[in-house]
Write a structure and sequence with these properties.
mainly alpha, about 80% helix, globular, membrane, SQR/QFR_C/D, transmembrane, Putative membrane protein
């Protein structure tokens, strides 16, 4: 089970690196994000690649849930508990986010680009649910990676393993704050097409 989880993690990690790079490049502006995404989509929206990534996510979720249940059943140490908790939230986010994206793409025939997310984050009412929803997903990803780094070095370089865990969580907290401040329009003026706001059935913030 753990071996299968690690193999599928390689495909998921490659996709997430590209996906997060897109968001950090986007800090230069939504147009830059869109331009980068247009190139990235040529890779991850290829039918074969998309199917492999989705399958890898499915394997990650199923094997990860089994491993998390084992951690909770055996009442393992704090870092394992943290890894299980962060992994569980990542799985929840992956399922709901992918379902939303496919709903928008297939049924509403709207391009599921960054404007779709920003419109929700800047929308009155929705923002109070979506900021923690997306923010926790980013933070949980860094926490999970920190736990993995801890696990890799804990037997040979235990002080280093703790340092990597703390540093990764710290970077994750800063990255989460940075992205949420930007995508809610607090650090730059964001211009989103009106049709994206219309997808959210609440009054837009002024």
């Amino acid at each position: 089970m753990e071996s299968l989880h690690k193999v599928s993690a390689g495909f998921v990690f490659a996709f997430l690196c590209l996906h997060m790079a897109n968001h950090f490049v986007g800090l230069q502006g939504l147009d830059t994000h869109i331009a980068f995404m247009a190139v990235a989509r040529m890779v991850y929206r290829h039918p074969v690649v998309e199917m492999v990534v989705l399958l890898a996510f499915l394997v990650q979720i199923l094997t990860g849930w089994a491993l998390a249940r084992e951690i909770w059943a055996k009442k393992k140490d704090f870092v394992h508990q943290l890894q299980a908790a962060s992994g569980t939230y990542i799985a929840f986010f992956a399922i709901t986010h992918v379902a939303f994206i496919f709903y928008v793409r297939q049924l509403l025939t709207v391009d599921s680009d960054i404007y779709l997310i920003v419109a929700g984050l800047m929308q009155s009412g929705w923002m109070y649910a979506l900021i923690p929803y997306y923010g926790l997903a980013i933070f949980a990803l860094f926490v999970h990676m920190g736990c993995i780094l801890f696990d890799i070095f804990k037997k040979t370089l235990r002080p280093v393993s703790w340092g990597l865990l703390v540093a990764t969580v710290g970077v994750g907290g800063y990255a989460t704050w940075l992205l949420m401040m930007f995508y809610t329009g607090h650090t730059a003026a964001l211009h989103v097409p009106a049709e994206y706001f219309d997808l959210y059935p609440l009054i837009r913030m002024k």
